[in-house]
Amino acid sequence: AAGVIQSPRHLIKEKRETATLKCYPIPRHDTVYWYQQGPGQDPQFLISFYEKMQSDKGSIPDRFSAQQFSDYHSELNMSSLELGDSALYFCASSLGTGRPYGYTFGSGTRLTVV
Amino acid sequence: AQTVTQSQPEMSVQEAETVTLSCTYDTSENNYYLFWYKQPPSRQMILVIRQEAYKQQNATENRFSVNFQKAAKSFSLKISDSQLGDTAMYFCAHKPFNFGNEKLTFGTGTRLTIIP
Questions:
Q1: Whole-number pLDDT of residue A101
Q2: Which residue among B2, B21, B30, B74 sits deepest, i.e. has the most Cβ atoms within 10 Å of its Cβ?
Q3: Is-contact B49 B35, C-beta < 8 A?
Q4: DSSP reduced 3-state for A94
Q5: Which of B7, B93, B43 lies closest to A39, judged by CA?
Q6: Which residues of A touch B97 (CB under 8 A)?
């Protein structure tokens, strides 16, 4: 079965650079979520989209922006990168919102800022 | 705001034994969802089991079962006949019931090691 695809798997950027992470949800899934997991920490919710509209927002820095496109894939844009942005970034998808099914997570993008 | 607490940072158990991971949470809502996720060394987040708060019956998925105590706000995970592949980080998570509030709140995780 098709899963949530994230690209790239690994990314190394220098401070103050910009990074773009991409997420391709499971076919027919219309909701995408982004999470950030720092080293040794639990995942923290960043933002979610339902039908290409932002549906919920968490602790996402102003330097970050995200959107969901017409084909339901999503991109997380991160500017003015800081060392503290080094983390594993997860995307997850689901069908609809407010449902109990839990999400299907991608394998994550490991971002290292040097 | 919801909080999720996992008080056991690490646990280990012999293969084929049973182990229980603890989770407590705090919420003012009456309806919500609870999940256990597994994160093996590959870092993939894998859904293990879920529970709707409005259901009294404890969820079961093969060797995995939960003990959901709504009044005590407790949601423990029992793994029976543990296998080496169960070695992973386990996260308990809470999700609100209402539409437009999509955030999963995770606990800090329990690192489980299955010993051969």
A1: 67
A2: B21
A3: yes
A4: strand
A5: B43
A6: 98
